[in-house]
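Schema walk-through. Below, the input block comes first and the output block second. Nothing else is stored per chain. Lengths vary across the set, and this one has 92 residues.
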Amino acid sequence: MMHRCPCCQHEFSDPEPPAGLTRVQAKVLKAIEALIAKRGFSPSYDDIASATGLRSRGSVNRVIVALRERGFITFHPGRSRSIAIVQQRSVA
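--- output ---
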């Protein structure tokens, strides 16, 4: 399946997701990485939904919770827009 990068709009195909992640989780993780790289700060749930085609913040929240439980992301307590990628578990 072909997709467009949320930051530079180049087309890419979905590789197999890393072990333990669904395709949607891998897509959200890649979008978070791309948005942080582009902007220098963590994206909002609306930004993530827009970049991945998810329809609601609730859908984004379910995926974010799953990524956190699996150790791919973490949060900085007490801060908004505080999603941080755990580098050693990052998707290549």
